[in-house]
Amino acid sequence: MARDDVKTGYKYVGTRPNRPDGLDKVTGRARYGADFSLPGMLHAAVVRSPHAHARIVKIDASKALALEGVKAVVTRADLPTGLEGEDLNLQDNTLAGEKALYDGHAVAAVAATSALLAQDAARLIEVTYEVLPHVTDVDAAMAPDAPVIREGVADYSVPEGMNGNVARYMEFGHGDVEAGFAAADVVREHTY
Asked: Are the C-beta atoms of 121 and 45 separated by less than 8 Å?
């Protein structure tokens, strides 16, 4: 039986949909975002933290800004202030504020007239870090003596005395789990 003859009951699974961009992709004619160049277009490069947890002491972008063709260097100080809750979390994930929260956290962004210039300028930005203790897995992060990565994120649901890395705590239950385990032929437990 040919693969196309298999009926799955689904609209698309098991079918061979027409791909309007397929021919362009396989022949190399397809154009991607990096293929376009428009008048006045700027290119960006991002400076990322090499540390899993570090206080950002200083960002010196003067050498990058001195390059002809570099139009801007943006840091967290350039973003709006006074945000809280989800808006603040969004900013933390956009550019690091006082601390880099993970290896690769964006610290600054450069806008320049070419991609190569933006990358060169990004390499000239000097960031001074105070490296802080970090954790490498969830269990270590929840330990009572673990270093707190993001201060003040725990909400009202976190029980008293629980580590500050726990932002929210929820318990769910339905039925008698122990009775279910006892009645089961096989019980398989694992941490995911």
From this structure: yes
Task: Compute the C-alpha angle 183/184/188, nearest 5°.
Answer: 140
Residue 46 has pLDDT above 90, yes or no: yes
- Phi and psi at 131, nearest 5°, equal -70, 130
Reply yes or no on whether the pLDDT at 4 is more than 60. no
Please give the helix or strand (H or E) that residue 58 lies within, else none: strand 54-60
What DSSP character marks residue 62?
H
Q: Give yes or no for a contact between 166 and 158, defined as CB atoms under 8 angstroms apart.
A: yes
Angstrom distance (rounded) from CA 12 to CA 104: 38
Cβ atoms of 59 and 127 within 8 Å: the answer is yes
- If one counts every other C-beta atom within 10 angstroms of the C-beta of residue 62, the result is 10
Residues 67 and 119: beta-carbon distance below 8 Å: no
Q: Domains plus CATH for the chain?
A: 41-131 (3.90.1170.50), 135-185 (no CATH)
Task: Measure the CA angle with vertex 186, ends 180 and 191; round to 5°.
Answer: 85
Residue 14 CB contacts under 8 Å (≥ 6 apart), including other chains = 3, 6, 7, 8
Beta strands in 69-144 (DSSP E): 70-75, 99-100, 106-112, 126-131
With a cut of 80, say whether residue 39 has pLDDT above it: yes
Nearest to 97 by CA among 57, 139, 50: 57
Token pair, residue 20, equals 């309007």
